[in-house]
Amino acid sequence: MSSRGLALAPPAKNVVVYRNGDPFFPGRKVVVNQRRFLTFEAFLNEVTTSIRAPLAVRNLYTPRHGHRVAELGELQDGCQYVAAGFEKFKRLDYLNRGRKELRGTRNSDGLQVNTSGWLLVPTFHSCRNTGSLHALGCFYCSVFRNGDLLSPPFPLLLSKSTPLQWNTLLATLTEKADLRSGAVNKLCRLDGTQVSGGEELVNGHYYVAVGNEEYKKLPYFELLVPQNSAYKTLRYVD
């Protein structure tokens, strides 16, 4: 290629790409070089590998408003984007890892309650006073959605001192999980065995919310909990 051709070539752009629905993913830097990526699809294939997406990336969105990017020319140098498959854009605070966007209120106990449900404490399990969750007599579980390898687990914060009403817990799980199959009818461990009561829940463990369908044995933890994820720092030990 002549020096004139090189001079006219579009300059490379540096962007940071996040995984849709993953509030703890730190983002990956990707160089957009139009000499290397002749099509937008080729770039999306590179993003799929770079962010280790569980499914092929087919859409890019702006992180704050979810505007869809349709071609390479729309990418801006130094900007951030969210990579998704065919699922809807999930509105998180991607630029501040580990936090949900944007609205929240405080309950009567002074605990943060996020209206989108990321750090929602079930109202029938209030943990009073301040300090660490462990000191408050609370324990923490993480719950995956059955068959869903795109959404990270959501947290479930419970009180050790308040008797657990199982039907009430299932109703809370139904609201938070928002399963495509409908209501959550059972809670399973990662090996597929069913939890039959609140006394079987273990602090810091991971579970799967299941509807009427069969439990789907998938690598939830391996694919949805990054090795250095803040989820692991939230696992409390008695």
Automatic annotation (TrEMBL):
Residues 78-124 form the PI-PLC Y-box domain. It comes from the Eukaryota. Residues 13-95, 143-221 form the Doublecortin domain. Gene3D superfamilies: Doublecortin domain. Keywords: Repeat. PROSITE patterns: DC, PIPLC_Y_DOMAIN. It holds the Pfam family DCX. The keyword Repeat applies. GO terms for biological process: intracellular signal transduction; lipid metabolic process. GO terms for cellular component: microtubule; microtubule organizing center. SMART domains: DCX. GO terms for molecular function: phosphatidylinositol-4,5-bisphosphate phospholipase C activity. The keyword Flavoprotein does not apply. This is DCD2B protein. It comes from Cochlearius cochlearius (Boat-billed heron). The gene is Dcdc2b.
